[in-house]
Specification:
The complex is a heterodimer of chains A (104) and B (496). Chain A is built from three helices and two strands; from the N terminus they run H-H-H-E-E. Chain A has 104 residues and is mostly helical. The longest helix of chain A is centred in the middle third of the chain and has 18 residues. The model of chain A has no long low-confidence stretch (mean pLDDT 86). Chain B has an eleven-stranded mixed beta sheet, sandwiched between helices. In chain B, helix 10 crosses helix 12. The longest helix of chain B is centred in the last third of the chain and has 24 residues. Chain B starts with 13 loop residues before the first helix and ends in a 10-residue tail after the last helix. The N terminus of chain B is likely disordered. Classes of the chains: A mainly alpha (104), B alpha/beta (496).
Chain lengths: 104, 496
């Protein structure tokens, strides 16, 4: 685990994260996000000052935000018709989405 | 009431409208004409609507007229409802206020929209919001900001700012919003209307475009508690298409509220001490203290209660919500739907990157980046892991509080509506303003914003009532008792 108290969000970190997130940033964006992410992460690092290490969830512990009824019977249902599935595509042909060549 | 041009439903409640339509005292066409005219004249000034089409309204009322004649059971017959534009509608665009979904037409209705149509409601339009529901001021919309009807130089709150502003201005008696960290309650408070964020799982999220799935919840805006109950009764029902939807029958709160006894004897209300700290406007503090005295005079017991971990809710929320957002919004790649770049790019990855760069606004990109960082190798345990541990601590602290009291009470926001542009360039300050509402979403609890006063600039103030899981009935009963007690003394309308 990284030592977060020493975290510096530099430009290369912003560019790396943007690439992971599939975002093409301008140099202005990089500078903006470097400043904002640094401020927010510095603030959020307060959680690392707290002793939460011993906080493990008891097996019986379940809160309102945790789903209880995830399982259901498996039934076949109608799926989206191809023309509807393609309705919002910018580029399509027949029953296919058009994308740039993936394999050279 | 006769069906003449004199018909004027301004400020009529949803319950009254439905009754008049069912009894035939009001023609659907007269009702629609009133709201169409009002929307044409006021909505552009507030920028509250993203989509509004008179033809759609007219075709809905023509079908509805036949259903009314046939004597169908229509609890919301003819009630105009506005829907936040991150909730799917099969016959209207659903944009999430984003360039990414500018031309998106859903292929189906959200569960809540299905339920409203079945109940006889008219879907009157789609309302503006912060892009993908990410924001607290409605300034992050690719359609421009929404203006607060009480002061057009101020924000209506966010992210459901369009719905809140429209209900306050009577462009519809009720509206739907979504609440991931306070996005119903805070705009309800800023616009002086009632806003209910139900228990997580009480209302299906099927057809709600995801921001942070473990926190998102659809809820209601209304100008009265009874109207809140009416809409909640219609939309709160089990839906197998949302795996987090709770099983159980419809709550039928409206009937139980009709038999409300006066007084609140024996009700234990806890004042959340952490949310009355420094940074709270004196006008907000004073209005809420007045409301506490009203509750006391009605027989409620008042206790100070501590929920200590709430002071860490901003950190926990903004790591968990953004982590989930980074995964949920990965689907917008320009291929199957949504904006695709027109740049001449040859690689698939470049299609993704340029489409997302052009399609998303700055705040959305920031949250995707923050969430991607929090989930990345080397930082996961330190950020996302810690945030989820804190989330459980917050839920535990709420549980402990509810051992002592039945309902918790706090401000909805530390201030009244702030000026447009005041915080938009300082995201951290904007996030810190959400301190009063975030813990409720982290714990999955129901909560409600209840209008309780005005500051010296005539800006509305809201108090927040928080309940145990699935205690919507108790929350609405408490709110209704207060509404009945203060009566018309707090009823004002924005001058538009």
């Amino acid at each position: 685990m990284a030592e977060v108290s020493e975290i510096e969000v530099d430009a290369s970190t912003v560019i790396k994260v943007a690439d992971l997130a599939n975002l093409q940033l301008s140099s202005t964006d990089v500078a903006y996000f470097q400043t904002q992410l640094s401020r927010i992460l510095k603030y959020a690092s307060e959680l690392n000052q707290l002793d939460l290490a011993s906080d493990t969830k008891a097996p019986s512990e379940r809160f309102a935000f945790e789903s209880k009824e995830l399982e259901r019977d498996d039934h076949c249902q109608a799926s989206l018709a191809p023309e509807l599935a393609l309705q919002n595509a910018t580029k399509k042909e027949g029953t296919a989405f058009i994308v740039p060549r993936v394999i050279d | 009431m006769t069906t003449t041009a004199a018909f004027h439903p301004y400020q009529l409640s949803a319950s009254e409208i439905s009754k008049l339509v069912r009894s035939g005292e009001v023609k659907l066409s007269d009702l629609a004409e009133f709201y169409l005219d009002r929307t044409r004249s006021i909505a552009p000034r507030l920028n509250s609507h993203i989509y509004f089409d008179a033809n759609s309204v007219e075709s809905q009322i023509s079908v509805l007229g036949e259903r009314v004649k046939a004597g169908e059971d229509l609890p919301m017959a003819g009630v105009p409802v506005l829907v936040k534009d991150n909730i799917c509608t099969r016959d209207m665009p659903t944009t999430c206020a984003s360039r990414m979904l500018k031309n998106f037409r859903p292929t189906y209705d959200a569960f809540v929209v299905e339920r409203l149509r079945k109940a006889g409601a008219i879907i009157f339009g789609k309302t503006n919001l912060d892009e993908f529901a990410m924001g607290s001021s409605n300034e992050n919309s690719s359609f421009g900001p929404v203006y607060n009807p009480w002061d057009l130089t101020r924000v209506p709150g966010g992210s459901s700012g369009g719905s809140a502003a429209a209900v306050a201005a009577d462009l519809a008696p009720v509206a739907l919003g979504s609440d991931t960290g306070g996005s119903i309650r805070q705009p309800a408070a800023f616009c002086g209307v009632y806003g209910l964020k139900p228990t997580y799982g009480a209302v299906s999220r099927y057809g709600l475009i995801s921001y942070a799935s473990s926190l998102d919840q659809i809820g209601t805006f209304a100008r009265s508690v009874i109207d809140t109950a009416m809409v909640y009764d219609v939309i709160a029902s089990h839906d197998p298409r949302d795996s987090t939807s709770r099983r159980g029958s419809s709550p039928e709160l409206i009937n139980s509220l009709a038999h409300l006894k006066s007084g609140l004897k024996g009700l234990r209300i806890g004042i959340v001490t952490e949310l009355f700290g420094s940074g709270l406007d004196e006008s907000v503090n004073s209005s809420i203290r007045d409301a506490v005295r009203v509750f006391q005079s009605m027989g409620a017991e008042i206790h100070d209660v501590s929920v200590p971990s709430l002071r860490h809710s901003v950190s926990s929320y903004y790591l968990i919500a953004t982590a989930e957002a980074s995964a949920n919004l990965a689907r917008y790649d320009g291929i199957r739907f949504g904006h695709r770049t027109t740049e001449q790019v040859n690689q698939l990855k470049e299609v993704y990157k340029y489409s997302r760069q052009e399609g998303f606004g700055r705040e959305v990109k920031q949250r995707i980046m923050l969430g991607t960082f929090a989930l990345s190798s080397g930082y996961y345990d330190a950020y996302y892991g810690k945030a989820t541990q804190m989330r459980r601590q917050i839920a535990r602290d709420f549980n402990l509080a509810f051992e002592r009291v039945d309902v918790l009470l706090s401000p909805v926001a530390p201030t009244t509506a702030f000026k447009i542009g005041e915080k938009i360039d300082d995201p951290l300050t904007m996030y810190l303003g959400d301190i009063c509402t975030l813990g409720v979403n982290l714990a999955g609890l129901p909560a409600m914003s209840v209008p309780c006063g005005y500051d010296h600039q005539n800006l509305p103030i809201g108090m927040q009532l928080i309940g145990r899981p699935l205690s919507e009935k108790e929350l609405l009963t408490t709110a209704l008792a207060y509404e009945n007690e203060v009566g018309s003394s707090l009823k004002r309308q924005p001058a538009l």
